[in-house]
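for ur thesis appendix - Thymidylate kinase. copy paste whatever u need, i formatted it the way the template wanted (i think)
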Amino acid sequence: MGILVALEGLDGAGKRTLVAKVLTHLAAAGVRTATLDFPRYGRSVHADIASEALRGEHGDLADSVHAMALMFALDRSGAVPELRELMDRNDLVILDRYVASNAAYGAARVHQDASGEFVRWIGELEFDRLGLPLPDRQLYLEVPVTLAELRARARETQEGRVLDAYERDSGLQVRTGELYAELARDQWRSPWTVLTPDVDPVTVAKNLALLTR
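the 3d part is after this line
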């Protein structure tokens, strides 16, 4: 079974770009790879409802931190068969967001730290009850909130994609970054590595390739 790696970070951190570059280098090195993005917008009814709620639909759904977290968790739960198939057929699978994203954003919304009830609930819900596979390695792409916001707004202009309620909330983004840092420090649920904004994709690819040996 292949190695499962989750890449985490704020909206606009540059995760998508980093994943693409790392996959290119891994493929050149002969490593069989696959990737999956969460939430699975356009593929999962739970992800789509959550997205719609963050844009003002579905009444007060977005006001409930636990309800929104449950929608994202159910999206991932529905992907378990696909995820396990990808792991069976490849040496390494990289996820753009995973369970830690739910823990970080939710805990930030309720103003708890990484040792609080919310993070514990997410771990128990997604890993223990819904049966999501634990990642072998979690990477946190740590970038300044101001840089992430600039990138997110540039993407809004270039792609015509309206920022959702989480992306527009600067305070939430700051707290979420702090939560991610705490989860990485605590090595929550599996080993973590913190990456800087100027990280070399070749170095990341080489380090990940070592996990497959």
